[in-house]
Amino acid sequence: MTNYAEKKMENCNVLLTGATGGMGKAFSQLLFEQGANLLLIGRNRGKLQQLKAELLASNSSKLNSAELKSHKRNRVEIFSVDLLEADHRRRLIDHLSTLSFDINLLINNAGISQLSLCEQTTENDINRIVSTNTIAPIQLTQALLPLLLKQTSAQIINIGSTFGSIGFPGYSVYCASKFALRGFSQTLSRELADTNIAVKYLSPRATKTSLISEQISQLNTALNTTTDSPEFVAKELLLLIEQHKIERYIGWPEKLFVRLNALFPAIVGKSIVKQLPIIKKFASESW
Fold first, then answer.
1. Is-contact 81 88, C-beta < 8 A?
2. Residue 209: predicted pLDDT
3. Domain range list for the chain
4. Phi/psi at 152 (nearest 5 deg)?
5. Res 66: pLDDT
6. Average confidence score pLDDT of the chain
7. Is 203 in contact with 247 (CB distance < 8 Å)?
8. Across the chain, which distance is largest between two alpha carbons, in Å?
9. Ramachandran region of residue 220, left (φ > 0), alpha (ψ -120 to 50) or beta?
């Protein structure tokens, strides 16, 4: 795709799911600052309207009156939708034809996490996590492919997790959902290798957002887990958009553990099992 660092992403038209979450807001702010047009997706229309207002106000405050008149203002659109519902996805696809810009970058960011032992995780929670983290992005991607294939160039970026590469106790369902998303990204990237679409995968480590429960936060502290800010992850996302690489893993030593786990899972497993009493303590408390 276009080098957005030079073009300030003026030719980038983004559909971003999970826009009102911690990372979603940070992604929105950075992409908008860089000149991208945004279609922000979420379930809560009120929060989407508030985010849109904040983005437009922030952009205007950085320009003087003369600049405002001459400045080519990028657009922010919002659409409230439950991506788990087929009719909602159809309404979203229909809505795209009403926009003043054609989507050429899909960011599947919406996701949920939960700390709980497998035996204590309810059937409803299993369905909710897998549906949100895996099935919804696959179905939305499939629905958007005909439109993306019409663009000169396009990207699909799936937001995964370090736990999409390393099985971690207390997150069995979450890990399964992110492992699957990573597999989908890798496979679709190869499937579309002869097209105009680049499929990429961003793998953040622990990130400070309001969606992280108190038990997860306490567990991260007990394990001395390094936690990134959403703004830091947003900068990593921008780098991935600019690069030809199809995967970007965030953090050290997490990058090393991902590689070690792929080659020598028993070594990583022994290290993690040593932490099992602490993990089970917080996982049981969250139940």
1. yes
2. 86
3. 4-212+226-255
4. -60, -45
5. 47
6. 91
7. yes
8. 63
9. alpha
92-112 b/e (C-beta count within 10 Å ≥ 16 → b): beeebeeeebebbbbbbbbbe
pLDDT per residue as tens digits for the range 68-85: 554 568 999 999 999 999
Q: Which helix (H) or strand (E) holds 33?
A: helix 22-33
pLDDT for residue 285: 74
Cα(259)–Cα(253) distance, integer angstroms: 10
> Could you confirm whether domain 4-212+226-255 is CATH 3.40.50.720?
yes
Provide φ and ψ at 86, rounded to 5°. Answer: -60, -40
Look at the block and give the residue holding tokens 């597999």: 183
pTM: 0.92
Return d(Cα 108, Cα 4) in angstroms, integer. Answer: 19
122-149: pLDDT as tens digits: 999 999 999 999 999 999 999 999 999 9
pLDDT at 4: 39
pLDDT the model gives residue 72: 65
Please give the backbone phi and psi of residue 164, each rounded to the nearest 5 degrees, phi first.
Answer: -85, 0
Contact assessment for residue 138 and residue 46, using Cβ atoms and an 8 Å cutoff: no
